[in-house]
């Protein structure tokens, strides 16, 4: 089987139910989601399964959900059945709450980095923010965009921030604070530390 079709040689690509230019905002949005997915895949290869079983399970679920998001954005057919639901967002919020409790006390902005996995997860986080911005733009110009994708991406960037910090904590690597930052976060993780 050949993987090249030559159907995109003139600058167009297929959607679910149509075709559009490859630089269309819709393609930019779901293409950026694909970038996020690729960096999450890279992070998976950098996490020790013995220490990160729960997070690896999260990330595999997220990779499937990102495919769902991309498919939903690519769907312009007359009969749209979207795959993403608010249940995925609810589940992610619960995981964020657990991860934030495991992280160290957060008072200032931090620099992306630490372990290789944490650094990759921060890259995924920033690309997620770009995907979210593109999706916002798409929803302003098209009426047929499932808004759940925008909400999911917003929550995903929070998850990736929290999980990047835990990736450092479990490897005993400290976050590097942005030294010019004031103390901008209040009580994030501090309640747990005060009880210990």
From TrEMBL:
Its EC number is 2.5.1.17. It catalyses: 2 cob(II)yrinate a,c diamide + reduced [electron-transfer flavoprotein] + 2 ATP = 2 adenosylcob(III)yrinate a,c-diamide + 2 triphosphate + oxidized [electron-transfer flavoprotein] + 3 H(+); 2 cob(II)alamin + reduced [electron-transfer flavoprotein] + 2 ATP = 2 adenosylcob(III)alamin + 2 triphosphate + oxidized [electron-transfer flavoprotein] + 3 H(+). It comes from the Bacteria. One of its GO terms (molecular function) is corrinoid adenosyltransferase activity. Keywords: ATP-binding, Cobalamin biosynthesis, Nucleotide-binding, Transferase. Signal peptide: none annotated. Pathway: Cofactor biosynthesis; adenosylcobalamin biosynthesis; adenosylcobalamin from cob(II)yrinate a,c-diamide: step 2/7. Pfam families: Cob_adeno_trans. InterPro entries: CblAdoTrfase-like, CblAdoTrfase-like_sf, PduO-typ. GO terms for biological process: cobalamin biosynthetic process. Residues 3-167 form the Cobalamin adenosyltransferase-like domain. It is an enzyme of class 2 (transferase). Belongs to the Cob(I)alamin adenosyltransferase family. NCBIfam families: PduO_Nterm. Homotrimer. This is Corrinoid adenosyltransferase.
């Amino acid at each position: 089987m050949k993987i090249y079709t030559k159907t995109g040689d003139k600058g167009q690509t297929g959607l679910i139910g149509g075709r559009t230019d490859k630089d269309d905002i819709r393609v930019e949005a779901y293409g950026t989601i694909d970038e996020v997915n690729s960096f999450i895949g890279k992070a998976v290869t950098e996490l020790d399964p013995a220490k990160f079983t729960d997070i690896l399970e999260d990330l595999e679920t997220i990779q499937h959900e990102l495919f769902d998001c991309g498919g939903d954005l690519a769907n312009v057919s007359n009969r749209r059945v979207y795959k993403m639901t608010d249940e995925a967002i609810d589940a992610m919020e619960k995981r964020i709450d657990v991860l934030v409790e495991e992280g160290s006390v957060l008072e200032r902005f931090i620099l992306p980095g630490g372990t290789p996995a944490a650094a990759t997860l921060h890259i995924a986080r920033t690309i997620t923010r770009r995907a979210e911005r593109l999706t916002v733009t798409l929803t302003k110009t098209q009426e047929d965009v499932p808004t759940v994708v925008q909400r999911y991406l917003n929550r995903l960037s929070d998850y990736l921030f929290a999980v990047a910090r835990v990736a450092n904590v479990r490897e005993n690597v400290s976050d590097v604070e942005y030294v010019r930052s004031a103390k901008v976060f209040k009580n994030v993780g501090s309640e747990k530390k005060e009880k210990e």
